[in-house]
Write a structure and sequence with these properties.
The complex is a heterodimer.
Chain A lengths: L2 H42 L6 H21 L3 H28 L6 H6 L11 H34 L5 H40 L4 H6 L1 H35 L3
Chain B lengths: L1 H27 L9 E16 L5 E13 L8 E9 L13 E10 L2 E9 L2 H46 L5 H21 L3 H28 L16 H34 L5 H28 L3 H9 L4 H44 L1
Parallel strand pairs in B: 3-5
Antiparallel strand pairs in B: 1-2, 1-4, 2-3, 4-5
Helix pairs in contact in B: 1-2, 2-3, 3-4, 3-5, 4-5, 4-8, 5-6, 5-8, 6-8, 7-8
Classes of the chains: A mainly alpha, B alpha+beta.
Chain lengths: 253, 371
């Protein structure tokens, strides 16, 4: 049997046993998201459509799956959704400026050497693809943080309905500070795990520090980690602010 | 007191700003550190432009550029160099250069005054530094003190990892397993102690994290052994100088760690919080609450890993698809390892939930028994 199928089966059983009905939904959500990513990549091969536009649509759909399908459509998930979209747009603007200048798009010399039989003149703007890759890498962490903060703030408001916007925002930020450390950890170790081979490879081939830092393979990876992490943190004040604002405005108990 | 606090904040932010400026100035002027010649582009003219169509009907435009650069280091410092560059509109394997760009060059011809050479690649260290500062600033502004702690823990973890890898590659017969196992224990103990202090809660979280991570690895190992690794395409790992399977398993171990830590600390601290607020709460109620929290976080956490892993493969998948490869082949070649990482990480997440609940309630029960 295939490794992937067996692992997926084990994950499904575990999620169902531990999480019950919500566990099953969490598992199917992974499948939906996989489908969305596939569709996105296939659409990106069409050079007539701007890949950033496709990515924004895809991220909107992914947030819908993560927020409305796993957590159901309610006040918490709607504020989390709006915050996610605002963060994505902000992030795209920042990344656009820097990725363009740092020339980290496409493939490094080390990768190209292994892909010599491929044609690289494909008519797709790989600079834009690099931006899309970073945005897609952060979307999971962004929705995760958004829903954690908005549901924690809902609980707080439920128990203290007299809180004003400023204090609500403050407590939202406090929740956010707790999440910040663990989320950056999750992303950091995931990347380290993914690039352990690269680190050993650089060491084995005796790359100097300067060569490593300036190589495309390394710098593109590190720059992506930093912007992915920044996105996952930028969502904290945005969700806290938006939830504080709309809780007081729309949810007078 | 308020004024003092303000002074302190201004001082801290001043220091950070100072560090940013100094480091950026340094990286902008560190040419003397490099042995390879570096040139700054001072003139760029386009000399040729043509359309290409490859055998898969992909249309692209090719440009020929003539650049004049000023050498920034070494014996030829201050001299001008003539550089040729070809780039495409898609830029998958090449770059367009503009006036002001800084590039590494190889000098090929050295005639009295006119140097000529080729470009090896742009100097990117400045962008790595800018991205790092952008991240650090956001973490500090939003997380304040806890942000500082998480940056310290990231920096120490990276340094320890580099030292460990140095050690591993310099010695012949050291087991990668042993090193990664040691690393995982160090990362967990250090990060969790730094984040939530040396107390019973942290001890419970450390035990739960390690148990969750290692049990997910045992599952992964068993599955790979049972299926004889069918469906895993190790040739996808481009950067390999050693046995791919042992490197892959080690990377699974490190990769699942962060998520397991996240789950363990979230559940453990919520259970301790509940216990502190209401000492009379029954252990059974504690377990139920723990399960509820676990249900809420496991779905989105699994997604964090999923997107972090899969998104990195997008450019490569595009390259395969545009080169006329079948979708099926493209996906197995490019995603089998990434999906395995995401699945094993998610299994770690789900396993850590009951383990955390069990360890936390065990410690709480022991504490109550003492009282």
């Amino acid at each position: 049997m295939n490794v992937l199928i067996l692992l997926a089966l084990i994950l499904f059983v575990l999620m169902k046993v531990v999480g019950g009905e919500k566990g099953t939904r969490s598992f199917t959500a992974l499948f939906f998201n996989f489908g969305i990513i596939l569709m996105t990549v296939i659409l990106m091969t069409d050079q007539a459509i701007n890949p950033i536009f496709i990515t924004i649509i895809a991220c909107t759909l992914i947030s819908c799956v993560n927020l409305f399908y796993i957590n159901r459509f309610n006040f918490k998930s709607v504020t989390a959704f709006v915050s996610t979209i605002i963060t994505l747009v902000l992030l795209i603007m920042v990344i656009f400026i820097i990725v363009d200048r740092s020339k980290i798009q496409g493939f490094g010399i080390e990768e190209i050497e292994e892909l010599l039989s491929f044609s690289f003149y494909l008519g797709i703007d790989f600079g834009k693809i690099a931006i899309c890759t970073i945005i897609m890498g952060t979307i999971g962490a962004v929705t995760d943080t958004a829903i954690s903060i908005s549901s924690a703030m809902n609980e707080i408001y439920l128990h203290n309905p007299t809180l004003d916007r400023y204090h609500l925002f403050k407590s939202g930020m406090n929740v956010g500070k707790d999440i910040l450390g663990t989320t950056t950890n999750t992303l950091f170790f995931a990347f380290i795990g993914g690039y352990l081979a690269l680190i050993i490879w650089f060491k084995d081939l005796g790359y100097s520090f300067g060569e490593v830092v300036n190589s495309k393979v390394f710098s593109s990876e590190v720059i992506s980690i930093f912007y992915t992490g920044a996105g996952a943190i930028l969502i904290i004040p945005i969700t806290a602010g938006l939830t504080a604002y709309s809780l007081v405005k729309y949810k007078k108990i | 007191m308020n004024i003092q606090w303000k002074k302190k904040t201004i001082f801290i932010y001043g220091m950070i700003l100072f560090c940013i400026l100094v480091s950026i100035l340094f990286v902008q002027n560190n040419f003397y550190l490099y042995e390879q010649p570096i040139a700054k582009v001072v003139e760029a003219t386009m000399t040729d432009e043509k359309e290409t169509i490859d055998s898969f009907e992909n249309k692209d435009q090719l440009f020929q550029q003539q650049l004049v650069g000023e050498i920034k280091n070494g014996e030829q410092q201050g001299q001008q160099i003539l550089l040729e560059n070809q780039y495409s509109l898609s830029g998958a394997a090449d770059h367009e250069f503009q006036v002001g760009d800084i590039v590494f060059v190889t000098i090929q011809r050295n005639e009295e005054t006119n140097l000529a050479g080729s470009i090896d690649g742009p100097k990117r260290d400045i962008y790595v530094v800018i991205a790092a500062w952008f991240f650090i600033l956001i973490v500090l502004l939003i997380g304040r003190k806890s942000g500082l702690f998480s940056i310290i823990s990231l920096v120490v973890n990276v340094l320890v990892l580099i030292i460990a890898m140095n050690y591993y590659t310099s010695l012949e017969d050291v087991d990668l397993w042993l090193i990664c196992g040691g690393l995982v224990i160090f990362f967990t103990v250090f990060s969790l102690l730094l984040v939530s202090g040396n107390n019973e809660k942290t001890h419970a979280a450390i035990i739960a994290t390690l148990a969750g991570t290692f049990s997910s690895l045992v599952i992964a190992y068993a599955v790979i052994a049972l299926t004889a690794g069918e469906g895993l395409r190790y040739e996808e790992m481009a950067f390999i100088t050693r046995n791919p399977q042992s490197i892959f398993l080690a990377s699974l171990l490190v990769g699942s760690l962060g998520a397991a830590m996240d789950i363990a600390i979230t559940i453990t601290s919520s259970l301790y919080e509940l216990n502190d607020k209401n000492n009379a709460i029954s252990l059974k109620d504690l377990k139920t609450s723990g399960r509820e929290i676990g249900k809420d976080i496991m779905g989105t956490m699994a997604n964090v890993l999923f997107f972090a892993y899969v998104s990195g493969s997008i450019p490569m998948i595009l390259l395969y698809l545009k080169n006329g490869m079948a979708v099926n082949y493209t996906l197995t070649m490019n995603l089998s390892l990434e999906l395995t990482r995401a699945l094993v990480g998610s299994i770690g997440i789900v396993m850590t939930i009951p383990i955390s609940i069990y360890t936390a309630t065990y410690f709480i029960r022991k504490r109550r028994a003492v009282k």
